[in-house]
Amino acid sequence: MSYTYWIDGKFQEKENVSLSPLTHTFHYGLGVFEGVRSYKSVSGNVNIFRLKEHTDRLFESAKIVGIDIDYSYEELFEAQKEVIKRSNLGDAYIRPLIYIGSERLGLDIEGIDRHAMVTCWEWPSYFGAEALEAGIDVMVSSFTRQFPNSLMTKSKICGGYVNGIMAHDHAKKNGFQEAILLDTNGFVAEGSGQNIFIVKDKKLMTPELTCCLNGITRRTVIEIAKDNGIEVLERSFTRDELYTADELFFCGTAVEITPIRSVDRINIGSGKRGEVTNLIQSTYLKTVRGEESKYQDWLAEV
User: Fold this and answer.
1) What is the distance between the alpha carbons of residues 2 and 87, in angstroms, rounded to a whole number?
2) Would you say 234 and 285 are in contact if contact means Cβ atoms under 8 Å apart?
3) Dihedral, CA of residue 136, residue 139, residue 140 and residue 141, to nearest 10
4) Which of 118, 114, 117 is closest to 102 using CA atoms?
């Protein structure tokens, strides 16, 4: 399949894209990105889910790390739709990326050249379709989620995902599908790249935004839960509360709503997708495909 990308204001076929091996972001990790999904609706049209919120956060992330974006909000917004259209994709993943510097290394970035790209590809469910029902097995990682004083935690910084990658890889090598990271105080933070929710006594709990990302899917889950009369608490909770939860799930653009059936080989609840998780997951998946009239304003038609 041939994909069309948007690179610094121009559309290019994937095969024709080249970048300098001295691109600064490759070497030092200073860049920001978003993960966005498009879905083919039941009526046949293609929509991007919460494109405005993702584009807002892209600009906020760039501001946080001090990189100016040389393109307007509207240009980045439309480029994300256009790469899907030109690549003739339905269910796909979109990756806007703001990066810096070719032909210049060193830590000084004053006056460095800035770039923007939007790529896309066909990407089905992150853990496989069966995981959406059966759930996944995870472990609590020895890697710690960065604290706000160590790295800006409210932005999606390229280099900020290194510890998540290492935690995920360590979990896979130990026979698990994913990792859960704690913060520096020992409280649950998030997955390697996902927010996490606990269901206990019909209430929904998620870590407060001390050091975890303010996920767009996280916000979506909270709104869906409240609309269905489910109480939502944002508070710190501990590793042992994972073990005694009635239900657990990850959420994120890539993983959507993925149940967790065990943590550290301890079954969670009945060891399969629970009632509350099922309600939120089914509502979410209907919403992204345009089947929920209540949330139509979350969809941007391609």
Assistant:
1) 7
2) no
3) -120
4) 114
Transcribe 116-160 into DSSP letters. EEEEEE----TT-TTHHHH-EEEEEEEEEPPPTTTS-TTS-BGGG
**Which run of H or E residues covers position 167?**
helix 162-173
pLDDT at 61 over 90: yes
Q: Tell me yes or no: is domain 4-122 CATH 3.30.700.30.
A: no
- Under a CB-based contact definition with an 8 Å cutoff, are residues 236 and 225 in contact? no
SS3 257: strand
Confidence band of 147 (pLDDT split at 50, 70, 90) = confident
**Global pTM?**
0.95
Listed by start position, the domains of the chain span 4-122, 129-289
- Residue with structure tokens 């933070």? 189
- For the question of residue 14 being annotated catalytic, the response is no
CA angle 159, 165, 169 (to 5 degrees): 160
pLDDT of residue 130: 85
Q: Copy the structure tokens of residue 91.
A: 């269910």
Q: Which of 156, 172, 226, 294 is catalytic?
A: 156
DSSP code, position 163: H
Q: What percentage of the chain carries pLDDT values higher than 70?
A: 100
CATH no., domain 129-289: 3.20.10.10
Per-residue burial over 195-216, b if 16 or more Cβ lie within 10 Å, else e, is bbbbbbeeebbbbeebbbbebb
Whether 151 has a pLDDT exceeding 90, the answer reads no
Q: What is the DSSP string of 49-104?
A: ETHHHHHHHHHHHHHHHT---SS-HHHHHHHHHHHHHHHT-SSEEEEEEEEE-SS-
